[in-house]
Design goal:
The protein is of the alpha/beta class and 216 residues long. It is built from six helices and seven strands. It is 24% helix and 16% strand.
Length: 216
């Protein structure tokens, strides 16, 4: 099935520089036709895909589910199409399914570095660590601490489309944390005096998305 962007396939903890495909146009979201649902029905309908039951899937979708099943999570890296502008980013799918921890997204570092950052976080989550907004965490990128902030669910589609698909096409059913890295002085984009490159490279997406004509 189509999920809105072509992506790279990255297996957690497997060394090597991941291959990055260009993003493609956004797909329409599948919405439930039920207007009034009991709590039980809402819970029943919002079931993520079972990565062990992937026989009906084909191609990349099947491989995507296999990696989540075997390794715990999958990392995707996304890039703009050739001659188009846009962010580079990598994100996880499977951390919430296996470990009840928010998925992770990182923007605009080198692809191999983003990939390693997400996997470093994933390995620590697998070992039992929980990452929370507003705290500093070391040993993820060089000698600098990183911090996390949540993405608003209205921002998910167009960024983490495969995660949305995995979690029953319901962007409200799983949390997503953005991993922020500081500038060379240790300042984050929201800190006074932060270098402009660190601000420009890391969009702050914790507020609801403004609806435009193209989104309707």
């Amino acid at each position: 099935m189509g999920h809105g962007r072509q992506i790279s396939e990255n297996v957690p903890s497997v060394p090597g520089v991941p291959w990055v495909c260009p993003r493609v146009s956004r797909v329409s979201k599948q919405r439930s036709v039920f207007a009034d649902r009991s709590s039980f029905l809402i819970l029943f309908l919002r079931m993520p895909l079972d990565p062990k039951k992937r026989g009906d899937q084909k191609g990349f979708d099947q491989e995507f589910l296999r990696i989540i099943d075997e390794f715990g999570w999958h990392v995707m890296s996304v890039a703009p199409r050739k001659d188009e502008e846009g962010d580079l980013f990598s994100y996880s799918t499977g951390l919430y399914y296996h470990f009840q921890h928010a998925e992770i997204i990182v923007f605009n570092q080198r692809t191999d570095l983003r990939h390693n950052m997400v996997n470093n976080i994933g390995n620590r989550v697998k070992a039992g660590e929980k990452f929370e907004p507003g705290k500093g965490y070391s040993d993820i990128i060089g000698d600098f601490d990183v911090q996390f902030r949540p993405l608003h669910s209205s921002r998910y589609w167009g960024l983490v489309n495969f995660s949305c698909w995995f979690y029953d096409n319901d962007e409200t059913s799983f949390p997503l944390l953005q991993c922020f890295y500081p500038d060379m002085a240790g300042k984050f984009p929201w800190d006074p005096g932060c270098e402009q490159w660190a601000i420009d490279n890391q969009p702050q997406l914790d507020q609801p998305k403004t609806i435009t004509t193209d989104d309707k």
